[in-house]
């Protein structure tokens, strides 16, 4: 009693699944960001001079 970390675990493992989904989504977003950098689609364009 009281020895569990707050917000961790649960009888149905819901928090564990949410953590795994977050890791997956973060990985996909990171990959999309890297691809967009390589393709020159993202980032600041400092040459505009506005």
Automatic annotation (TrEMBL):
The lineage of its organism: Eukaryota, Fungi, Dikarya, Ascomycota, Pezizomycotina. This is Uncharacterized protein. It comes from the Eukaryota. It comes from Glarea lozoyensis (strain ATCC 20868 / MF5171).
């Amino acid at each position: 009693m009281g020895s569990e970390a707050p917000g961790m675990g649960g009888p149905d493992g819901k928090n564990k699944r949410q953590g795994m989904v977050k890791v997956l989504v973060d990985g996909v977003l990171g990959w999309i960001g890297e691809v967009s950098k390589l393709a020159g689609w993202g980032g600041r364009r400092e040459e505009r001079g506005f």
